[in-house]
Amino acid sequence: MNAWRDANNLKNVKVLPDGNGLFAKEMGLLTDMSVVGFNMRSKRYAMIVDNGTVTKMFIEPDSSAADPDPYSETTPDNVLESLIGE
């Protein structure tokens, strides 16, 4: 994740890897991605955290055969729109 952060020149974003999925499991965000050849993986999500408190969550729906990798809730536009509105 740090390489992705650096390659995208992100300065004010903290990336937090969850390599073993423990955080995702505790948050109830693990999903079965076997439909695309993976096993249990973290759902795609974004969150706004203010001084250590999660103030907004954006969580993609579960994957399915029709849409194995949904991407609509966690778009940068959705997150930015929410930040601008706060």
| Secondary-structure class | alpha+beta
Number of strands: 4
Output the radius of gyration: 14 Å
Order of adjacent strands in the largest pleated sheet? 1-2
Instruction: Please summarize the sheet with the most strands.
Output: 2 strands, antiparallel
**Fraction in beta strands:** 15-25%
Give the termini distance in whole angstroms: 27 Å
How confident is the prediction overall: mean pLDDT?
A: 88
CATH topology tier name: Glutaredoxin
Provide the succession of SSEs.
HHEEEEH
**Regarding CATH, which class?**
Alpha Beta
Helical coverage, percent range = 10-25%
Number of domains: 1
**What characteristic shape results from the CA principal axes?**
globular
Count of helical regions: 3
- CATH architecture annotation: 3-Layer(aba) Sandwich
Oligomerization category of the chains in this entry: single chain
Low-confidence stretches: none
Kindly report the name of the CATH homologous superfamily.
Glutaredoxin
Written account of the structure:
By secondary structure, the chain is an alpha+beta fold. The chain has one domain (16-85): Glutaredoxin, CATH 3.40.30.10. The chain is 24% helix and 22% strand. The chain has three helices and four strands. The strands form two sheets. A two-stranded antiparallel ribbon has the order 1-2. The chain has a two-stranded antiparallel sheet with strand order 3-4. The longest helix is centred in the last third of the chain and has 10 residues, at 76-85. The radius of gyration is 14 Å and the shape is globular. The protein starts with a helix and ends with a helix.
